[in-house]
Every structure is written in structure tokens, then in C-alpha cells.
Amino acid sequence: MIRVALVDDQALFRAGIRMLIDSQPDLEVVAEAADGQEALRAVRQSRPDVVLMDIRMPVMDGLAATAELLADTDPPRIVMLTTFDLDEAAARAIRQGASGFLLKDADPEFLLAAIRTVHAGSAVIAASATRELFERFTDAAPRPVPPAYGDLTEREREIFALAARGLSNAEIAAREFLSEATVKTHISRILTKLGLRDRVQLVVFAFEHGLA
Which residues carry this modification: 4-aspartylphosphate (predicted)? Predict the structure, then answer.
């Protein structure tokens, strides 16, 4: 069972999302909050797997709450909710360590799939939209490539390049004639060597260092 927390200042929106999530046999809403401060208490108490976090809220916004939660030991995966397609705040949250973003008017099936995708860690939510977000809000001058990148094997660099384009494990496996289990192993090693938390952080790393 995937445990989900909802953080949004609109009670009607939360109620709709809760009904949608609770209708699924593998998903369960375990906490709700109307602002960032409430979210800190609710998330730390309920220990969800995935948090859907609105960016703009009173008292404490989603960016501040996300930064605090991600500083905890073993934090949940956090998906930012936004009404804007290319939202600079969403880009900032992802740089902080959020696992992706969703539009608040996303198709219900897409939202459910996104929760499962983030929990599984096998792909990036809305890969093309995420790439577009970072093309828009990444500084023109890339940072120097850190020495850790040089520790990747040639094969790992090939897998890195495909993952940086947003390809899922299944897509990489089909393209490289590998099993999904092998791709998953490669991705895990890449993330460990580069000190990255998940695949969306890999995409950020690629853009910030001119490797995308």
C-alpha cells in the first residue's frame, strides 16, 4: 500500500483528490494539511511514502515546507502541485530535492500514475515537461562537471545520458537490449556515485552541468 499525504489550502480540492486516491486498492491517504506548517506536523506524524504539496499556500508555502521535510532523516518523496505549466517555483523545489511536479488540473489517471511512478522510482513524471522546465530556468553557463562523474563507467555514462533525457527503465532496457533489472542496477549505481537521491535529481544534475 502506497501511503499518500495531501497538502493544499483548498479543502474542496483535497476532498476530490482524497476520493480519487482512496478509490484505488494500492493507494491510501494517511494525512491532510492546509498549509506548510500543518504539513510538517502531519507528515512527520503519519510517515507517508509520497506527499502531494501545493506550492502556494498561506502561513508557510510549499517550497519552505518541502525544504524542511527533505532535511529530515528518510524523508518522503514530494511532488509539487502547481497551476502553472512552466513554474519557476516548481523548478526551485525540484532543485531542493522534490521528486517532480504535477499540474493541479492533470487528468485523474495521470495523477494516479504519477504517484505510483514516484514511489517506484523507475521513471520521471512528465519527463518532457520536466526537461522543458529546466531548459527554461537553468542558468546559461553550466557548472564544472564534478570529479564523481569521471567515476562512471562507459556503460553507466550511456545509461546516464538516456535517463537524463527522461527515459524510463523499460525504455532504456528496450533501447539498449538489457533487462529492466540490469538497468535498475545501473541507475542505482549512478545515483550512488553521484550522490543523487532519485532520477529527477539526475535530470537536474545533467542540466546544471551541461550534460543533458
Answer: 54
Angle ∠(171,128,115) on CA atoms, nearest 5: 75
Can you tell me the distance from the alpha carbon of 202 to that of 5, in angstroms, rounded to the nearest whole number?
25
pLDDT digits (tens, 9 = 90+) for 42-98: 999 999 999 999 999 999 999 999 999 999 998 999 999 998 877 788 888 998 889
Question: Is residue 65 a contact partner of residue 7, using CB atoms and an 8 Å limit?
Answer: yes
Would you say the pTM of this structure is higher than 0.85?
A: yes
| Residue 139 scores a pLDDT above 80 | no
Name every residue whose Cβ is closer than 8 Å to that of residue 178 and which is 6 or more positions away in sequence.
172
For the segment 114-134, the average pLDDT, to the nearest whole number, is: 85
Closest CA to 29 of 13, 10, 49, 9: 49
- Decide: helix, strand or coil at residue 185: helix
In 3D, which of 128, 131, 13 has the Cα closest to residue 82?
A: 13
Band (pLDDT 50/70/90 cuts) for residue 190 is very high
> Which spans in 54-198 are helix H?
62-70, 88-96, 108-120, 127-137, 154-164, 169-176, 180-194
Check the CA dihedral 138-136-155-194 and report its sign.
positive
Mean pLDDT over all residues of the chain? 92
Evaluate whether 78 touches 56 at the Cβ level (below 8 Å): no
